[in-house]
Amino acid sequence: MMLFKLILNTIPRSLLIRVSYWVRPILVFFYKGNRYTDPIDGKSYRKFLSYGYGVQRPNVLAPGSLSLERHRLLWLYLKNETAFFKVPKKVLHIAPEQAFYKRFRQQKNLDYITADLNSPLADVKTDITNLPFKNNQFDVIFCNHVLEHVLDDKKAMQELFRVLKKGGFGIFQIPQDLNRETTYEDANITNPKERSKHFGQYDHVRVYGRDYFDRLRDVGFEVTPIDYSQKISVELFEKYRLAKGELLPVCVKN
């Protein structure tokens, strides 16, 4: 066991999200305990894994589902506050996360379509700024931690609005600096090292501020930033290892 732990410590934590399916049961066994619980798969652990680009966040990556804080928060919101798991829905998932992909695919009430330019999990290979879908086609759209990579994010938002049905909702999470009033971006910064320095990651093209929600409103969405962690008890907040102040941008087309 000590040898296995030593091997684990040699793996860059930022790459653990890509571990193959046969490694997960080993991680689940090694970290098994009762201090923390992943609400997505219900498994409990003595600790979670560290994860992060550049600076590692300790105790945030669930070994079984490979969920992070934002995934667990979104799951709890969908489960407790919506009919997502009960009522028939046509769903578009841009850049599908591993924590959700198989679970959403297995939901019998969902007509589930995934899309991305590069992801091997995508049913449809497409550019988010030019989606190959008809108007008003989807009841629900997920597009999480994508828009910060897209140069023309307004066009991407317009496309998400176009293909969402009237009365449908989307959740479009992004890394956000709530201390910034306005989004910081500079299209002239193209060098990966400079992008890391300015935007926090080599393939990010901006840092969203509090005006992110207004950007979504400008293309037609009704936006409610929900701090769902406030509805969760202090005990469960720590047990699920959630992030304080993480906002869910719930976007409705009316």
Structural summary, described in words:
This protein has 254 residues and is an alpha/beta fold. It has helices at 2-9, 24-30, 69-81, 98-106, 153-163, 192-199, 212-218, 234-239; strands spanning 32-37, 44-45, 49-51, 57-61, 89-94, 110-116, 124-125, 138-143, 164-171, 184-185, 206-207, 222-226, 248-252. The strands form 4 sheets. It has a 7-stranded mixed beta sheet, sandwiched between helices. A two-stranded antiparallel ribbon has the order 1-2. The protein has 2 domains: 2-65, no CATH class; 70-252, Rossmann fold. 27% of the residues lie in helices and 23% in strands. The model is unreliable at 1-17 (pLDDT under 50). It has 8 helices and 13 strands.
Q: Mind sketching the topology for me?
A:
Blueprint: H1 2-9, H2 24-30, E1 32-37, E2 44-45, E3 49-51, E4 57-61, H3 69-81, E5 89-94, H4 98-106, E6 110-116, E7 124-125, E8 138-143, H5 153-163, E9 164-171, E10 184-185, H6 192-199, E11 206-207, H7 212-218, E12 222-226, H8 234-239, E13 248-252
Parallel strand pairs: 5-6, 5-8, 6-7, 8-9
Antiparallel strand pairs: 1-2, 3-4, 9-13, 10-11, 12-13
What descriptors fit this protein?
seven-stranded mixed beta sheet, alpha/beta, 8 helices, two-stranded antiparallel sheet, globular, 254 residues, Rossmann fold, 27% helix
